[in-house]
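REQUEST FORM: STRUCTURE PREDICTION
Request ID: SP-0412
Submitted by: Lab K.M.
Chain count: 1
Length (residues): 263
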Amino acid sequence: MDKMLFCGIDIGSLTGKCVILENDKIISHSISQVTKNPILTSQIVFFDALNKINKRPEDIDFCVATGYGREKVPYANKSISEISCHGLGAFILDPKIRTVIDVGGQDCKIILLDDQGSLKDFVMNEKCAAGTGRYLEIMADLLNLSLEELGKISLKSQSPVKMNSVCSIYAQSEVLYYISKKVKKEDIAAGINRAMAERVVSLFRKLYLQPEFTISGGVAKNIGVVKNLEQILNIKFKNLPIDSQLVGAFGAAHFAQRNFKNS
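STATUS: Completed
RESULT:
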């Protein structure tokens, strides 16, 4: 199967991602903020990834779409759930992985894998923005920080604030209150990240977790949330060798390769 190209497209609620594989190796990728139109978002990341390697759409042998907008990708040969794609992606990157935390823009998922990388069990929360990437995005905006800055600055905190509200709407009022009281940004950021980690941990109690652990999705780039999760759960996440936001698209590309072989 020399020179065959396989594509994974992951259209989430906050970002669109594309990964192109050749001989199991990532040869191109793209990440972009979503537009209001999932079709347009998929085209932006797809053509950006293709242009980087001077390829055309017809050069792709099979494409799998995943994520929130997976059914809206017109050129995909198949769509597969993000739970399966994040699981497979993490497992291929590190076959020792058995538990994957994927914190997306609109939901949080805990994924358990067997020793073949297949889905064993999962649990997810999508009822409220609290405990999702959207929650962090809202809070970061209030502090005029990026998501990565929200994590880094929190590490400087000596006196983290206590975020009492579970609801993200009320949490905004808490943050605005702390800002009005001239509380240091790092202390507010630390409180936000701690609250985020606690929301995620509440899901863990519903599953019997198994090492090794990793975290995927954009929230994995927030070192404050990651360190809080490790502290609360007394675990250590294994770092994956690609951008954490690409794990779902990477898994989708491998599903594309498998489906092509079996077709």
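NOTES: The CA atoms of residues 64 and 78 lie 5 Å apart.
Reviewed by: T.R.
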